[in-house]
């Protein structure tokens, strides 16, 4: 069967690159206003069920954001905050918050810079938050040491830095970019790729993950691997793409933000290449689909959210969106950045089912370390267990499964297969 082990599970497609600000930009749009139900949708009130409101003193959870910055990520973080806020309202009204107490979200604007995120980490400590949660950051190395020194747990949906993936007190609910690289390696092996070249943003955290983890998993999979660093802001990526081809690559991949992806797609198209291409879901944006659909269609990709809107969690997400933010598309695959925010918060809330104690930082850390098979929201059966066994060389990773498939011309993934990647990280 090759290195791929197919698991019967349709639904959530865990992103291999969410950690690096690589969730797909949402299309927005959406639904009829004010919490009303879209045509054919189950009434939101029926889906949400009976209220179970949280009461008492709030439990403050932190989020380090960049929605107020002038970076290219500001719009994406705005959407992430939208998704997290509407999920928070649902959790406080229908799920009893955390241990029956309402969740308060303290948002600090770090601007996705090392100095800004470190300052926010210090503010989290001064504020006395119980935990900090994050869909992703490129600056985990600046955040984690500050929080863990104060014994505040840091919970990322998908970590990428060494600190996020190995330092005690930090947790990555999914394998994120590391497991995504392993999925690329396994898929490439099973499809006859001899050597892959990855064009990557020239940043310390990104290159650390690409060179370190990529070198391990591609070697284990028996596929050659080359990293080509591309300076931030490079508009014409054809020289780097040409270097990859001249270096013998028979498959091309990338990791970077939406601007990076646009330049990568343009270079591939300009050179009229006909090589297998491996992309990340940041490339799936209305603008890129319109301009580069022939390049995107047929590429290989991992993805973040269920493509089946009939699953229980997807139906719930739609009801939450219609109830708490009618501007958000109720399809989690369309409102991908908002659903990333909701996934992060509600997967964290799922940790506390049956928990009756005081949700202090110490108690939350212990709960993370001891809980087994906690459902990932929008996971359609996927779970996380933070016992350090999912990826042996990365003890903070709580799940090693990832789905991967080919991209259709509408940006969705078809023929996805779940890959269990633990074996690619073992000696």
TrEMBL record:
Pfam families the record matches: Peripla_BP_6 (PF13458)
SUPFAM superfamilies, per the entry: Periplasmic binding protein-like I
InterPro entries: BCAA_transport (IPR051010), Leu-bd (IPR028081), Peripla_BP_I (IPR028082)
CDD domains: PBP1_ABC_ligand_binding-like
Keywords: Signal
Domain (Leucine-binding protein) ranges: 58-391
Domain of life: Bacteria
Signal peptide: 1-26
Record family assignment: Belongs to the leucine-binding protein family.
Record-given protein name: Leucine-binding protein domain-containing protein
